[in-house]
Amino acid sequence: MGVFVDHRSFVIERELPGSPAHAFRFWSDHQLKRRWNACHPDWHVMEDRFDFRIDGQESMIWQMPDGTRQAMLAHFLEIHPRQRIVYAYTMRTDDVPISSSLVTVEFAGAASKTIMTFTEQAVFASAADGDVREQGTGLGFTRLQQAMAELAEEPASA
After folding, report:
1. Are 82 and 21 in contact (CB under 8 A)?
2. Digit-coded pLDDT (tens) for 133-144
3. How far is CA 19 from CA 16, 71, 81, 92, 95, in A?
4. 41: helix, coil or strand?
5. Strand order in the sheet with 6-17
6. In angstroms, how far is CA 30 from the centroid of its own chain?
7. pTM reported for the whole predicted model
8. Contacts by 41-45, CB closer than 8 A, 24 or more apart
9. Following CA atoms 145, 108, 115, 157 in sequence, which dihedral angle do they give, to the nearest 10 degrees?
């Protein structure tokens, strides 16, 4: 008998305050991204790298209070400023892969708001991991909406 695999895709759409350029900044700027996606304040960050470019990589490794290590390792495949980001990533617990995903983030809108569409196609080592990921991603986007609202958009230059 083979190893259990849970394939799933999910789409999360959010209305974000500000233009697509403003929304894109919260994905492409290391410090702005961490304002909304650093979601475990009691976990010790062991590594935090962010090279946002085509073929660049992002990695975060945390140690949980119980000593368990979690890692997120991503590779940027496509970057279309203010329009779309495509990346692949894997999550690991104590160096054992628990999921691998292909993600597309799309930005569409006008000057005052953006519709962000996040599509994740994933394979999980357990169905429970997939449920937690989908819920956690949605919570992260609520933090993204709050972070964008707190940091006013820079006026466009004339």
Report:
1. yes
2. 889 899 999 999
3. 8, 31, 12, 34, 39
4. coil
5. 6-17, 113-124, 96-109, 84-93, 69-80, 57-63, 44-50
6. 12
7. 0.91
8. 43/70
9. 40
